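Have a think about this chain, tokens included, and walk me through the fold.
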Amino acid sequence: MNIAEIQVTRHYAPPNKVKEIRNAYELRGEDKTLYYTTTVKSNFNFFENLLHLEDLHSTPVMSPISTPGILSYRYRLEAQYEENGRRINKIRIIPRMSSTSTLTGYIYVVDSLWLIQKLDLTMEKGNLFMYDYFTIHQEFDLAGDSMCILKEQVLDYGVKYKNQASTCKTTAQFSNYNFQPNFPAKFFNNELAVTTDEAYDKDSLFWKEQRAVSLTPEEQRFILVRDSIHDAMNRKEYLDSIDKVFNKVTFLKVIWFGVEHRNRPKKVQWSINSLAAILRPLYPAGPRIAPGFNYFKKWEDQRTLDINAEISYGFLNHDIKGNINGNYLYNPFKQARLKFGFDHDFDAIVSYDAITQIYKRSNFIEATSLDIGQTQEYINGLYVDVNFQFCERRSINGYKKLGFLDEVIPNDDFKPFQGYQALLGEVTITYTPGQKYMREPHRKVVLGSKWPSVYAYYERGIPKLFGSDVDHEYGLVGIYQNFQLGTFGTSSYHVKSGKFLSSKNLKDADFKYQRRSDPIWFSNPLYSFQDQDSSLPSRDYYIEAHFIHHDNGSIINKIPFMKKTGIGLVVGFGAMYVAQYNWKHYEVLGGIERNFKFSKRRLRIGLYAVFSDGNNITPRWTGKISFAVLDDRNMKFNF
């Protein structure tokens, strides 16, 4: 059993201004499958035409009591009865088309007043992100003869995996309405919710006095036992015994899992790679072993320090390489962090190339680099990332290599060149207007925005300083957005353009490439093309645009019985122009996708057909496949 108890003050002003103050929060167990722990992500207001339930449902839901509801639902009077001196009409709602209507159930209407007394509605399974079923029960108080206000909301929902089932219930009581609020100026802003510092510290006496929903005997017993277990499990003696087991070095840890050590009072944990993890049989210059070490520390105010170090030895060339990298999050609310690192290792010239090319020996060099950087959100939605790198790059042409796999997987030779030094500075600025967020005591939860995000990137190869041999400037601008087209599905686009502003001394490793496509694999269509057969290094400008639309069943479900299959349609296109080569490339894609349960997650498998054309290829078709896992935090796939 898992129980979350939350007390919230919700402020609202028409048409859509909201601010939620979370006054008390108590969680016993986990809240991973619990829904409606806040009113700002999704709110069941059936008096709106559409319900935007972006963390629950893949498409907006048409309300059966809205003005256009008659277009999506049929209504049937099931019964009439007396209750508290009023005649109640029990009305059944029936979807006209399962592709656009996802609710079934009953509406209870007070006769002559035509006000809602209660709702009993069920969501169809097809477009739910996580759950197998979801029902909504709402009861209303009649404030006079012209207004009904929500009194209670009960949600019943659940999900079943192969060996585990979750049956969940959320009961929300609404009270203390104020119909004449006096909000101060600028009370409503992009901060939609605030959790007070005291919210997590409420004791049992507070909940005994303030609890709006009575607990069942089973829940009372659970809380009593859970609190007792919590007290016992947080005693120093018990925690020390747990850490003693955790820190014990065993054969399986050494061989496979890795050796870990925890110091709970200091909030420190470190680990050493297992023997399986240090083996690197496939490397550009032969097999290696690479022992690694990780150190992590967390403070009470959510600051963190994460350090990773590794040293590697190559058997074929008897060479030693290694790296150490750190990340210090010093302001969790602004996501302000310092980054630092030292690397002496092999490096890829084109790190984002097709899988058929990235492993080629000619794509690798040896690099010794020192990196420092800082990133921070300066105002809401404005992020600035600054990095500097001093790097010495050398050819690995003299290294020995193993070629016994070359006949099976074609490869080439290391690329000879004169070594050089490079000092690089990078600045990335990203801005999302109107970014909504929730404030926790020590962190910020971003909820998204209805506006697109824009970004600009500038790279400077700084000459002469510290002996740097490079001298170039590169600029890139872009815009991207995800948005819903009502009940017609979800669309995403990404447009960007880049150019070398100067290239007095531009090295291969600093070129920017238009990535060639992978065979069979459907890569992220917002950042790559599916049938681009050349990797194009360019000094001149380029521009590329990507668009993809998921119908979320709005089209294919119109076909009889197709909704039961859970299949959705996807369409998109991409276009690119590279000025230096006068290279034009176009793509149109279409496919089908379906979600599956996979290890307590949602896996989406897609099959696609891509038609491509351009001034350097003949028109052609190709087939692709993709696998994507739903992100449990934002309830979104990567595209």
In short: DSSP finds five helices and 35 strands in the chain. Residues 217-233 form the longest helix (17 residues).
